[in-house]
What does this fold into?
Amino acid sequence: MEYVLNLAMLLVGFFFLVKGADIFVDGSSSVAKLFKIPSVIIGLTIVSIGTSLPEAAVSITSSLQGSYDLSIANVVGSNIFNLLVVVGASALICPFVVDKMIMKRDLPICIGITALLAFMLRDNILSRIEAGVLFVIFVAYLVLLVVSALKDRQQSAENEKPMPLSKSLVFILLGGAGIILGGTFTVDSAKFFAKAFGMSEMLIGLTVVAVGTSLPELVTSIVAAKKGESEIALGNVVGSCIFNIMFILGMSGLVHPLNCEPAAFIDSVFLIGVNILMYLACITSKKVNRPEGLICVVLYVIYIAYTILRAFSLLPF
It folds into this structure.
């Protein structure tokens, strides 16, 4: 009975995380429009951060509860899932051309920030100073996005009328409450299953929790692919990956230094490799085709098999 209750709590936690993030973004975007903030800036800031709110809720809650492995594993696992499964599934549905700015600016930044994270985890701890560095870089990146958007934006009429301020604030409060509640449910149930099945919190974070908190990116990209707009898939994913490392681990590490298993360093190095492969695929063909999408999904299956075997000490590394 206890297993059923915790499974239900995990699923409810995922629901609150995804729905809460969705409502929070709607409310925040509406407030921004009411105050005449350009829609392009709303997309680059509020919406981009909004899709990363489930990861933020889980990682920060884990940090507060002392589950530091879960904080790091959730972010690293989510980024691996995003780059391999979200991009791969989108390409399988509809191959897409890669935006030039993503190749020129965002993918190199994603590779660089992932390499920096791996360097920071070499001693199996993310200190407050290191977390502070990540957060400062996040602020600088956000400023870069806003300046770039203001420079290149084109005037366009708003198609959607914003909600009244009172309704927008209610959405923000309800969304925020859902995110917090969902984060708590997810972390508590994940810790239960890790203990019950003799699994590490890191394994749970890299697999179940990472997939669950990546649902907004997955749903957004697959829906876009079905509508023939799958070119946004990579931008959505890369932006989320950058925010996950700089904002979420920056905030989590500022709450408390994050100790982690040596395997976290190995996973972060693997994540660098995934980023580089994605970059090479983009610059060589300027698009992501179905065969490349299939390779991404297969690589993820191999990675998950590796993490499970490693967790049960069936591999020497």
